[in-house]
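User: quick one, fold this
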Amino acid sequence: MTEHNSAVGWAVPEPGIMLVTLQRPPANALGPVIIEGVEAALAEADRRGDIKIVVIASDLPGVFAAGADIKHMSNIDAASFTAYGDGLRATLDRLTGTDYITVAAIEGLALGGGLELAIACHLRVAGRDAKLGLPEVKLGLIPGAGGTQRLPRLVGRGRALDIMLTARQVPADEAHVMGLVDRLVEPGTAVEEALTLARGLCGMSQPALKAIVRTVDASFDTAIDEGFRYEIEQEQELFEHGEAQEGLSAFLGKRAPEFA
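Assistant:
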């Protein structure tokens, strides 16, 4: 495991997959040191050029990440609060907008900024004993790192309001039913299952995976007719310049495709 600092480490357990591990006791509060560490891990993934899937996990028992750094926020002025929020949002936006697929492996608590980190990833794998929530209203704040925007897109307006207004912790099985969690697994196996998922995704056409994410994301921001047009453009691009020809040839030849 390579460490950027004491709060974040990363490793490449197999070709194409980077495992980024949060390791800041007692609860992986998302202070500047974690933000900097995650940024460094993503920069390393970019530098390598061969990373296809990034898995975000925790090295602490019972917690993925329990929120923003409240101690840090309580000791800074308005300008520093703005800078802190901008830094956190930029990192989470990078997870959402990156060229590789990002997967959160959730064990235990994913609360506040920790859940915002998880929902910034493209997919979420959670142990059955995980609990997820956005309790910022208890602090007189709102989820300010994308939570008010990303959560309704995952679970709908009513469920998102219920989670945020009540500040409750959602059990993993309920989170799975509502679409907040994509895969529900046995406690203690989230990282293993996320790596298995990553392994499968590595074998897919990467241009096609990226086009799927772009096209699905566009559906939330465009009228349906415009979305259809964008879908057609992406499909045509894959046919002409992506890996569709290899995929079609492999299907007809009854062999596994050899994607880059």
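User: anything notable?
Assistant: Residues 92 and 152 are 17 Å apart (CA to CA).
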